[in-house]
Amino acid sequence: MAYDRISNFEGVYKSLHLPAVIIGGTFVLIALALSTILILEHLRAYTNPAEQKWIIGVLFMVPVYATESIMSLWNSKFSMVYDILRNCYEAFALYSFWCYLVACLGGEDRVVELLETAAREEISEQLLKEEDDEAQHRHSLNDFVFHPTVLGKDLYTIIKFGIVQYMILKTLCAFLALLLELFGVYGDGEFKWYYGYPYVTIIINFSQMWALYCLVQFYNVSHSILQAIKPLSKFISFKAIVFATWWQGVGIALVCYVGILPKWGKIQNGIQDFLICIEMAIAAIAHVYVFSAEHYKYLPVSGCGKITSVESKTKSKLVENAKSGPATVEQKETNVEAPGTRIMESVQDVVLGGGEHVVKDVALTISQAIEPVEKSVTKFQDTIHHISAGSDKGKNPEVEVDERVTENFVDLKSEFSSEMKVRV
Question: Where are the transmembrane segments (predicted)?
Fold first, then answer.
């Protein structure tokens, strides 16, 4: 009976596969067109590299997801390889979004300075309410959860570690899943202890939740300063892609596991890929408004470029001595149109500058993760050394002394000589 049911679903899958590819491909074309135009606009008006290189990194998430999904939907044999590409770029996109927020605040040094200032103000307010001075300066997990501001520069270190660790673990787990799949022990969608899928899912889920929570905490302590870029809309549009697509895949796997849909890899992957194709078109439309390049097309008046002015007139009524009359209020806003930049130069800065930044942060995070292990190993070695040294002190060394006395007679005179040997 189960075989007949799978056969029926297989027939339905074959009949719906071509229409699904056509519909999904249409949405993918919309997503690719909108994202490509928006990325080219940023590359053409590349006036703020510190921010725009990371915006482009976030925007590329839509083309990567859309292309991977439609190719996987068209040919499910390579779905595992496409998943690796998608998972790796998802982690990088989360890192890019966080770097974008940091760049909007003025860079890492400026962020640390702002966090330290906020921490001093928060601690001062708490000291006015409570008398226990020492307790306010002992940082703990509760501070990160309930009072993250008091951590100061340590908060930046914790958040940075949380974001980068996800990028590292996500990439490693993606390649681990491919390796397990080659040996036939991954079991995609199978929640069984002898398969690798549930363990990889738990690791990625914990890592992702921790990274997103760190991002939420960073938003909470900086949203008032970031009001100029409207961070909430950007945060929601990005988090919806990362969070929804992951849990969407887990939900489909659970639905198949409980028997609502058959445990057939093509159906699970096909539903996920088809939904992502549609979602990426929606995400591309949202990005056009959320990550618009219009802001970067103009420079301050002191810069160079084509000066444009916008003039608006508003009519209102002025009341004076019980007499009203129309009045016109004129308002002029002057902007300088930025000169266009060469796309190749912009691409070079995005790739080289962004790549150097990523390598630096990954190396720093790995060293921070290894440092506690090195300290533990060093402490363990010191403990073993002290124990062995203490045992040696408890033993009294045995000393043996051999003394030899000789007498020589030379010309009726006797001479004595002694020789002593000490053995420990």
Answer: 20-40, 52-74, 167-187, 199-219, 240-260, 272-291
Enumerate the β-bridge partners of residue 133.
none
- Helix 197-222 to helix 79-104 angle (10° resolution) is 20
Residue entry with tokens 């491909």: 25
Residue 112 shares a structural domain with residue 21: yes
Of the listed ranges 216-225, 300-309, 364-373, 382-391, the one predicted with least confidence: 300-309
Report which secondary-structure segment, H or E, holds 26: helix 2-44
Q: How far apart are CA 140 and CA 159, in angstroms?
A: 15
Tell me whether strands 413-423 and 400-410 are parallel, antiparallel or unpaired.
antiparallel
User: Given phi > 0 = left and psi -120 to 50 = alpha, else beta, which region is 61?
Assistant: alpha
- Domain residue limits at 328: 306-337
Residue 62 to residue 328: CA distance in whole angstroms: 47
Residue 167 in domain:
yes
Write out the E strands in 167-222.
Answer: none
Indicate whether 105 and 212 sit together in one domain: yes
Q: Do residues 218 and 114 lie in contact, with contact meaning Cβ atoms separated by under 8 Å?
A: no
Alpha helices in 321-419 (DSSP H): 343-348, 354-393
Percent of the chain topping pLDDT 90: 16
Query: Is position 278 within any domain?
Result: yes
Q: What is the mean pLDDT of the chain?
A: 76
